[in-house]
C-alpha cells in the first residue's frame, strides 16, 4: 500500500511539472500570436494607404495611352 501511495505521489508531481511547462508554452505562444496579429494589422493599414482609391490610377491590364 505504501509503495502505491509513493507511486501516485511521484506521478502527481510529474503531472504538475508537465502542466506547468505546458502552461508556460501556451503563454509564450499566445504572446507570439498577439505580436503577429498586431503586425498583420499594421501591414494591412500600410497596404490600404498604398493602394489607389477605386476608379483612379491605372490597373495592370489597362493599355497606356501612347499605344
TrEMBL record:
Gene3D superfamilies (alphabetical): 1.20.5.300
UniProt xrefs under InterPro entries: SlyX
Highest taxon of the lineage: Bacteria
Name used for this protein in its record: Protein SlyX homolog
Organism, scientific name: Sedimenticola thiotaurini
High-level lineage: Bacteria, Pseudomonadati, Pseudomonadota, Gammaproteobacteria, Chromatiales
Amino acid at each position: 500500500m505504501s509503495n502505491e501511495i509513493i507511486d501516485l505521489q511521484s506521478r502527481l508531481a510529474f503531472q504538475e511539472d508537465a502542466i506547468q511547462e505546458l502552461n508556460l508554452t501556451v503563454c509564450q505562444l499566445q504572446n507570439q500570436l498577439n505580436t503577429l496579429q498586431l503586425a498583420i494589422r499594421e501591414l494591412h493599414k500600410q497596404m490600404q494607404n498604398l493602394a489607389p482609391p477605386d476608379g483612379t490610377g491605372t490597373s495592370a491590364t489597362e493599355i497606356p495611352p501612347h499605344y
